[in-house]
Amino acid sequence: MKTLAIAFGLALLSAAGSAGAADLYQPEPAPQPEPIVQPVAASGWYLRGDVGYAFGHSRGGYYFPDGNYKEFDHTKLDDSWFGGAGIGYQVTKHFRVDFTGDYGSGADFKGHSECGDSSCYSNDTSSAHMLSLLANAYVDLGTYYGITPYVGAGIGGTHIDFGKFTSSTHCGGSACGGAYDLSFDYDGKSDWRFTYALMAGASVDLTCNLKFDTSYRYRHVSGGGMSENIVASDAYANPYGRSYDKGIDLHDVRAGLRYTFGGCAQPAPVYATYEQPSEPVYK
Question: For domain 50-65+96-268, which CATH number applies: 3.90.550, 3.30.70, 1.10.3470, 2.40.160?
Answer without folding.
Answer: 2.40.160
